[in-house]
Design goal:
single chain, seven-stranded mixed beta sheet
Length: 212
Amino acid sequence: MTEGITVVPANEASWEDLQAVFGTRGSAPICQCQRFKLRRLESFGSFPAEERARRLREQTNSGNPRAGTTSGLVAYLDDEPVGWCAVEPRTAYEGLVRNNRVPWTDRDEDKTDGSVWAITCLFTRAGFRRRGITYALARAAVDFARERGARAVEGYPLITTAGTNVIWDELLVGSPGVFAAAGLTEVSHPTKRRLVMRIDFTNGALGSSGPA
């Protein structure tokens, strides 16, 4: 792990720090990590960015270290907020459960099983990328979920190949290497470019230290 990186539950970070991670350009400040949180009958364009931000603030309980719940983690590098990871029980992501076939293709999975957690977003602040931030976040997410009673944790990474153009926003779901370093292994390959990777704590598996 890169020296100087610390990761805290998002409720222990200030709202200003979280918004500093997202920045003001690109899809992150627009999405506010609501893509997989869409409720029934909602479309992404049906509510403004301000409402998405309000929901994220409520979901994270940012700035409230005594809160009993939060929806993710914030990474710091030498006290500078630099990364975000969304990790919650899989059932918290209504859009993932309802509209996304990736987690369910070729698997007999109970969509209502709240003991399975999901890592749906790994985002590093512009200017701090390629420093191991996402690796640190993924490892911390595995520990975070296990400590809070998760039976398993899943991720849905994107496969990239040499010569294929990939925009940065596509990588927000994480890469296979990042998840493998955190101890997850492939359990299905639902599309040409997407994997489902998972770690089951009931088998005694723990996240590995992995590369920085």
